[in-house]
Write a structure and sequence with these properties.
Order of helices and strands: HHHEEH
Number of helices: 4
Number of strands: 2
Strand order of the largest sheet: 1-2
Largest sheet: 2 strands, antiparallel
Shape: globular
Distance between the termini: 41 Å
Length: 121
């Protein structure tokens, strides 16, 4: 159902193109020396995690059970409710993916702040 929902987003293709361009730009700035295909693969995984951050096993609850049954912590997320992810096999590649996730959050925060300022006026 997650794949169906994501594939039905009309803006997803445009978003993927912009994220790809941004990832190539960040790879150049940070001197992340990988083939463009590898950068794009990491960027695609980062976008997937960023768009859908909750654990798929427990649907973000961090546990299973309840209603008289014992609560059992979700093993895949360790009870956090958030997806555990590995963006690439090597540590350097994974760290580049985490950098992209951080930059996504920073950009969204910047837009949210600008919208708050605009709406206050």
């Amino acid at each position: 159902s997650r794949v169906v929902a994501l594939s039905s987003l009309s803006s997803l293709d445009t978003t993927k193109r912009h994220v790809a361009g941004f990832a190539i730009q960040m790879a150049t700035i940070t001197k992340f020396d990988r083939e463009p295909e590898e950068v794009l693969r990491i960027a695609a995984k980062a976008l997937d995690v960023w768009l859908d951050p909750i654990c798929h096993q427990c649907t973000g609850r961090g546990h299973s059970g309840a209603y008289g049954a014992p609560l059992v912590l979700c093993k895949p997320c360790g009870g956090s409710g958030s997806r555990r992810y590995r963006l690439a096999s090597s540590e350097a590649d994974h760290q580049f993916g985490k950098l992209l996730l951080t930059r996504f959050d920073e950009k969204v925060e910047g837009v949210a702040n600008a919208m708050r300022k605009f709406l206050r006026k």
